[in-house]
Amino acid sequence: MKLWEIKKSSLNKKIEEYTVGEDSTIDNVIVPYDCMVTLAHAKLLYKMGILSKSELKKLVVELKGIMKLSKRGLFKIEKEEEDSHTAIENYLTARLGSIGKKIHAFRSRNEQIIGAFRLFCKEELANIEKLINDLIDEIKNFKIKYGKIKLPGYTHTRKAMESNLGMWCDWIIESMEDNKKLIATVKELIDQCPLGTGAGFGLPVKVDRNFLAKKSGFKTVQKSPVYTQNSRGKFESTILHVLTQIMFDLNKISSDIILFSLDNFGYFSLSNDICTGSSMMPHKRNPDALEIMRGNYHKVLSYEFQIKSLISNLISGYHRDFQLTKKPVVEAFKITKNSLEIMMLIIRGIGVNKTKCEQDLTSDLYSVNKVYKKVMEGKPFREAYRKVKKDYEKV
Amino acid sequence: MKLWEIKKSSLNKKIEEYTVGEDSTIDNVIVPYDCMVTLAHAKLLYKMGILSKSELKKLVVELKGIMKLSKRGLFKIEKEEEDSHTAIENYLTARLGSIGKKIHAFRSRNEQIIGAFRLFCKEELANIEKLINDLIDEIKNFKIKYGKIKLPGYTHTRKAMESNLGMWCDWIIESMEDNKKLIATVKELIDQCPLGTGAGFGLPVKVDRNFLAKKSGFKTVQKSPVYTQNSRGKFESTILHVLTQIMFDLNKISSDIILFSLDNFGYFSLSNDICTGSSMMPHKRNPDALEIMRGNYHKVLSYEFQIKSLISNLISGYHRDFQLTKKPVVEAFKITKNSLEIMMLIIRGIGVNKTKCEQDLTSDLYSVNKVYKKVMEGKPFREAYRKVKKDYEKV
Amino acid sequence: MKLWEIKKSSLNKKIEEYTVGEDSTIDNVIVPYDCMVTLAHAKLLYKMGILSKSELKKLVVELKGIMKLSKRGLFKIEKEEEDSHTAIENYLTARLGSIGKKIHAFRSRNEQIIGAFRLFCKEELANIEKLINDLIDEIKNFKIKYGKIKLPGYTHTRKAMESNLGMWCDWIIESMEDNKKLIATVKELIDQCPLGTGAGFGLPVKVDRNFLAKKSGFKTVQKSPVYTQNSRGKFESTILHVLTQIMFDLNKISSDIILFSLDNFGYFSLSNDICTGSSMMPHKRNPDALEIMRGNYHKVLSYEFQIKSLISNLISGYHRDFQLTKKPVVEAFKITKNSLEIMMLIIRGIGVNKTKCEQDLTSDLYSVNKVYKKVMEGKPFREAYRKVKKDYEKV
Amino acid sequence: MKLWEIKKSSLNKKIEEYTVGEDSTIDNVIVPYDCMVTLAHAKLLYKMGILSKSELKKLVVELKGIMKLSKRGLFKIEKEEEDSHTAIENYLTARLGSIGKKIHAFRSRNEQIIGAFRLFCKEELANIEKLINDLIDEIKNFKIKYGKIKLPGYTHTRKAMESNLGMWCDWIIESMEDNKKLIATVKELIDQCPLGTGAGFGLPVKVDRNFLAKKSGFKTVQKSPVYTQNSRGKFESTILHVLTQIMFDLNKISSDIILFSLDNFGYFSLSNDICTGSSMMPHKRNPDALEIMRGNYHKVLSYEFQIKSLISNLISGYHRDFQLTKKPVVEAFKITKNSLEIMMLIIRGIGVNKTKCEQDLTSDLYSVNKVYKKVMEGKPFREAYRKVKKDYEKV
Fold first, then answer.
1. CB-based contact D392 B263, cutoff 8 Å
2. Does the distance separating the beta carbons of C316 and B168 come in below 8 Å?
3. What pLDDT, on a 0 to 100 scale, did the predictor assign at position C395?
4. Tell me, what CATH number does D81's domain have?
C-alpha cells in the first residue's frame, strides 16, 4: 500500500509501473541512508514529545535491522510500494504497529529523499577519493619503473619533441590531484541538511533543524526550503561534472595506451589477462577494457546532460521529473569506481618496450634544439627558425 | 568459455566483468534475432557444403528451441560467456557437438550482432508505428467528444487568440503522422544486410551475400564491409533521433495537460486512477505519470547524445566502444513504447470543464478581430493595429 | 520603430539588445526568403481585394529590389528593428507609404519566419546534396587512382585483416548515398507551408492557404495551425540530425587520414598547401584542417542538442525561446558546406605510399586464411580456430 | 605572413579560412591578455640575456600600445595571420625589427594561448562574481518590499502549501551564494601558470617558471607540461559547468516569473518597458526577455557539451581541435553577464498583486495543518493523514 493511499491499489497498474520505473531497484542503494535520516527524524520526534523513549528505542532497533537486511540484500521494495520511504514505513508499521505510523509526522518524502541521497553521495565521493589515491600510487610505481624511458611527444598526432614516460605519469598525477580538489568542493556543497523543510515550503510546526542536521551527519543546514528542492538536480549535476572530469582523464589515458600498444608504435605491451580475443581471427589480442573505459566517459557525460536538460524550463518546487535524477548519479558512481579500479589493473599490466620507444626518437624531434642553438649565438628567434625550417623544406 | 579462449578463464575476472558490463542482460533481448541470423548463416554453410543436410536440420531444430526458451525467459547468458553469440554457440556445441563448432565458419561476431540488432530494431519500429496509430485513434475519439470546445490559445505563455480543442487534437495527429514518415525512412535505412562482411573487411572466402540477406529477411545487401562497421552507432543514432521526435511530442502534450489541469486553469481534470498522492499533504492529486513522461524525453535524448559522442573521433572499423550503443537503443524503445501506451490511458482519463475553458475567453483574445474589421473597411493594417493598440495602452 | 510600437523606443534599450541578440545579423540570411513569402502574401491580399493591382505591382518591384540589395549586402536590419520582418515592412512603408502599411494584414510574424526559414533550409539542403555528389566524385577518382592498393584493415585499432583503399572509398560513397536519402526525407518533411496560420491559432478571416503554398513554392499545406508552431525546433532538429550524420562521416574520414598520414604509419602523405606549421618547431607539418573538421562535428552536434533541449518542457504555441533555433541551423549549414568542400580539397591532395601500405601486411593478417583452410579440409571451425590460435599463443 | 611560413601564403586560401575560422574575431578578446603573458615572457628573455634592457623597454612600450589599441578596437588581426599571437609578433616586428623577431624564443603558441586565455577567464569570473552580488542585492530589495506577501507554494505544478515571497527570494540568494563558491573553486583551479612548458613537452632550455608565473599574475605553476595541454578543454568545461549553474538558476527564476505573471495567476506584473508586443495582436504584452533568458541556459549548456564531446577520444598533447574551445567560453561569459544584468532590470520592474496572491490561498493548502492538529492530539501521523484524506476524497 502506498503512503498516500486510503485503499489498496487505487492507482492504475500501468500508471504505477510507469511512474515507479526503476525506483524499486535503485532505491535499494538508498535504503541504508534513508534509515539514517529516519533515525535522525525519530530522535526529533522524541525530542518533540511525539514519540516516547521506548518507542524511539524500538524504532532504532528496527531501523538498524533494516540496514543490516539491506546490506545482505534481503530488504525488498515492492513495485507496489513505490520507493524506499514507503517500504521502510510499511516495514516499521508491520513490526511496530502504530509506532511505525508515527514516523512520518512533520516530514515529507521530498526532503527525506534529498537527505538520504546526499548521504549516499557523500560516501560515494569518499570512495572515489580513495580510489584516486590508489591510482596515483599505481602511477607513481609505474614512474619509478619506467619514468626515465624517452619516447616522442606528439602534438597534432604528429611527432613533436622528445618526451619521457615520467612526464606522462606526471600529467595523470597532477590531473587527479586537481580532480580531488573538485571532489572536495562538491562534498562541501552537498553537505547541507535538507531535513525539516517539508515539501519545499517549510512546515506548519517548528522543528529544530540544527538538531536534525547534527543527528543525520550534515555539516550545515540548507536554510531555504524552496532551495532544498530547487537544488535537486543542480547538486547532482555538479557531482556528475566532477565524475566526467575523472572519466575524461581515464578516456585520455585509455586513448594513449591503445595507441602506444598498437603494432605501429609498440611502445607499450598489454599483459594477456587484460586482453580479449576475436571469435574469428585467432591472432587478435584486443584492448577491450580500455575501449569500454573510453566509451564509459560518454555514458557518464550523457548522464550529466540528461539531468541538466531534465531540470530546465520548470518552475520552482518539486516535480516528479526529479525522480529520474537518481539513476544517472548511482550509475555514474558505479562506472567511475569500476573504471578507476580497472585502470589500476591495466597500468600494473603494462610492459614498456624501451627499444621501440627510443627508436622513434628521430632527428626532427630536435629541430627546436637547432633553432635555440642559433638563438644562443645571438640570432633573433624568428630568423633562426626560418633558417632551420628551410632545411626541412628542402627534404 | 569464450569463443576466443583456448583454455577457460584466461581473462582477469574483473576485466571480464568490466568489459561484459550489462551485455549478459541486454543480449537476452537479442537472442531470438541472433538465432534468425544464425539460421540464415547455417543455410549458407549448407549451400557451401560445410554442413550436411542432416546437420542443418539439427541446427534448425536447436535454434528454434533457443528462440522458444528465450521467449519464456529460460535461455541464460552467463557473464563468463560475454554475449548472446557465445551463449548460442556454446549451447549448440553442448547439444550437437562438432556441428555446433562448425557454425561460426565464415562469419564474425562483428557482422552477427549488427544483423541481429537490426532485425530487433525493425520489429521494435513496427511496434512503435502500431502504438502511434492507436494513439492517433485515441486522440480522434477525444476530438469527437470535446473538439468543439473553445478555449484560449497561448503564445509566450500568454493568452493570444481563441482556439479550440479540435485544433489541439489536430497538431498531435499531424505531428504523429510526420513521425511515422521518419520511422518509414529509418526502417528503410537499416533494412540493409551486414551478413557476409566478416570483421569489417570481407572474408577470404566467397559467400553469397544476397542469399544471406534473403534468408535473414533483409531488403538489400549493405555492400561495403567497412561501411557495415562504420554505420554502427550512426544508424542507431538515427533510430534514436526518431524516438526523440516522438518523445518530444509526448513531452509537449504532457506539458499542456499539466498546465491545463492546474487549479488556476481547470480546463482539464484527470481521473483519480492516474493521479498519485503526497505522503504528507492529504489534499494532493499529482500528475506524476505526465511528469515522468516529460522527463523521459530527456532520458531518450541523452541516449542519442551518448551514442553520437561515443562514436566520434575514432578511425574506421570496429571498436569495442560500440558495445555501449546497444543499451541506449533497447532502453529508448522500451521507454517510447511505454510512454505511448500511458499517454493513451491518460487521454482516455481526461475530463474537460467546458465552463472553465469558455470563461477564460476574455475580450482581448479578439483584439485582432477589431483590427481586421478596420482593415476590411479600408484602413491599412498597421494603422488599424496602432489605433486598436492605443486603446489597450490606456487601460 | 518596431511593428508593435505606437511610439518609438518604448522598450528598455538593454532589454531590446538582449532579446534581439544576434538576430539583426542572422536575419540577413533570411531576408530574400522573407521577401518570397511576403510576395506570396501580397498576391493573396490582392486576391482578397485588400491590395489593388497597381499596389501589388509596386510591392513586387520593391520586394525584388530588397532581394537584390540583400544579395549585395546592402539591405540593413537595425538592432532597433528586431528582425527581417520589421526591416522589410519599414522599408516598404518608407518607399510606398500606406501600401507598406497594408502588407501585414492577415498574417503574423510567427508564420512568416517559419515560412521564410523553411525556404532557406530547402535551398541549403539542395546545396549540401550537390556538394555530397561532388565529394562522391572526388572519392571515385581517388579510388580509380589508388583503389587497388592493399593495406591492413584495423579493428580495435589493431591490425585485423587485409583491406584495400577501394574498400575505404566504398564506405564513404555508400555512407554519403545514405545521407542523401536522409536529406530527401527532411526536404519532404519541411516542404509544408505554414502561411495562413497566424500566430498559431488560425485567423479570424478566411485565407486561401493552398494559394499561399503554391505562390511561395511549398509542396503541401501544413494544416494544423498549432502544429506549425509546435513543429518549430522539431523540424530544425531533424535537419541538424542529418547534418550531424554527414559531419560524422567527415569526422571519421579525418580520423582515418590523420592516423594514416602519421609517421608511424606513413600510408598517406598530405600535400604541403593543406598542412600548417608550428610557431616553434620548424620540422612540423600539421593536419590542422582535418583536426578542425573532426572538431566541427562536435559543434554541429552541440547545435542539435541545444535545440532539442531548448524546446522541451514547454506548452504548445510560440515561445520567444524559438528565436534561438535559427542560429544553430544557419551555422550548421555553413560548417557542413565548408567541411564538404575542404574534404574534397584534402582528398585531392593525398598521396599514397604503396610500399608503406604493403609493408604492414604482416602474416598475422592472414590468420583467418589458415583457419579456413582447415575448415575446407573438413575440420569444424571452432576446432580449427583453436588449433591456429595455439600457435600464436606460443609466440 | 604566418609565424611558421618562410614564404607568404604557402597555405591554400580555403584551408586557411577553414582552419582560422572565427579566431580572427574571437582572438580580439584575447589580445590584451596575450600582451600580458608576452610582457612576462619578455622579462624572462631579458633575465636570460636574450634581450637587452633597452630592447625590453621598447617591447614594453609597444605591448602596452597594443593593449590600448585593442581596448579602442583598433588592433586588427588579419585572417591571414591566424591568431592574436601572430598579429602581435608581426606588429612588434613591423615596429621594432629584429627585437620583435626575438620575442618567440623559448616559448610556443600552445602555452601562450593557455596563459592568455586563463587570464581572460580569471577576469571574467571576477566580473560574474560582481554581477551575482548585484543581483543578490536586488533580490534583497525585492524581499524588503514584498517578502511578507503570502502566496501558494507549488509542487508538481499543483498548489501544495502556503508560501511567501520571502521564501522565493531566499532560494535565489542561497543558490547564488553557492554559485559563488563554485566560482571560487574554478578560479583557484585555473590560477596555474602554463608558461614555460613549450609545446607540451618542456623546452630544451631551462627557464624560470616561477618567475614567469609571478610576472604574468598566476598564483602557482602548473608543473607537468603534458598536463598544461591535457587540461585544455578540461578546465574550460569546469568554467562552463559553473556558468550553467548560474544560468540554471536564471532559467528557473524566468520560468517562475513567466508563470506568476500569466493572467491565470496574476501574482506578478511586468513593467511595460521590459515587455514586447506582437506584430499582429495589439493586446499582447510578452515577456520575451525572460523567454530568451530561459533559452540561453540551453545555449550555455550546449557549449559545455560541445567542449566535453570535442576533447574526448584523443591522445595526450595538443590538437588543433582545441581551438574550438575558445568561442564557447567567450560566448558563455557574455551571455551569463548579460543575463545577470537583465535579470536585475526585470526584478526591479516586477509589481506584485497582493490580492491575487492571497486570493489563491485556498483551504486545501492547509490540509497538513489539519493532520498535524490530530497528531498533536496523539493520533499516529499516518492514521491522521488517512482520516483527513478521506474527507478530500468525498468531495
1. no
2. yes
3. 57
4. 1.10.275.10
Using one digit for the tens of pLDDT, what is the confidence trace for B326-356?
999 999 999 999 999 999 999 999 999 999 9
A3 in a structural domain: no
pLDDT digits (tens, 9 = 90+) for B131-184: 999 999 999 999 999 999 999 999 999 999 999 999 999 999 999 999 999 999
Q: Tell me the nearest-neighbour CA distance from A382 into chain B, angstroms.
A: 34
Domain boundary among C52, C77, C102: C102
pTM tops 0.80: yes
Answer yes or no: is pLDDT of A173 > 60: yes
Say whether both B229 and B326 belong to one domain. yes
Residues C268, C192 share a domain: yes
Interface chains of chain D (3 or more CB pairs under 8 Å): A, B, C
Residue span of the structural domain in which D90 resides: 13-102
Nearest to C226 among B105, B171, B230 (CB): B171
Alpha-carbon gap: C15 to the closest alpha carbon of chain D (Å): 6
pLDDT at residue A395 tops 70: no
Is residue C302 domain-shared with residue C382, that is, in the same domain? no
Considering the domain architecture, whether residues B154 and B263 belong to the same structural domain is answered as: yes
Minimal CA–CA distance to B199: which of B314, B111, B325?
B111
Asked whether the beta carbons of residue A158 and residue C309 sit closer than 8 angstroms, the reply is no
Task: Please indicate, yes or no, if residue C213 is contained in any of the structural domains.
Answer: no
% of chain B beyond a pLDDT of 90: 91
Confirm whether A8 is domain-assigned: no
Which chains, if any, share at least 3 CB pairs under 8 A with chain B? Answer: A, C, D
Same domain? C377 vs C334:
no
Residues D97, D128: one domain? no
User: D162 to chain B: nearest residue by CA?
Assistant: B281
- Rounded to a whole number, what is the distance in Å from the CA of C177 to chain D's nearest CA? 25
Give the pLDDT band (50/70/90) at residue B247: very high
Calculate how close chain B gets to D163, using CA atoms only, in Å. 14
Q: Which of D161, D280, D285 sits opposite B368 (nearest CB)?
A: D280
- Contact call for B156 and D291, based on CB within 8 A: yes
**B299 and A306 in contact by Cβ < 8 A?**
yes
Nearest-CA neighbor of D135 among D370, D355, D340, D380? D340
Question: In this structure, is residue D60 part of a structural domain?
Answer: yes
Domain termination site, one of C39, C73, C102: C102
Q: Could you report the per-residue pLDDT of D129-155, keeping only the tens digit for each?
A: 999 999 999 999 999 999 999 999 999
Q: Which of C309, C365, C368 sits opposite A280 (nearest CB)?
A: C368
Pair (C299, C178) in one structural domain: yes
User: Which of D9, D10, D19 best probes binding to C when mutated, by most C CB atoms within 10 angstroms?
Assistant: D19
The distance of C75 to chain B (nearest Cα, Å) reads: 22
Whether C157 sits inside 8 A of A258 (CB atoms) is: yes
B112: closest chain A residue by CA: A279
Are both A280 and A387 inside the same structural domain? no
Q: How far is residue D199's CA from residue A367's CA, in Å, rounded to a whole number?
A: 13
The tens digit of pLDDT for each residue in C333-384 reads 999 999 999 999 999 999 999 999 999 999 999 999 999 999 999 999 999 9
Query: Could you give the number of structural domains in chain D?
Result: 3
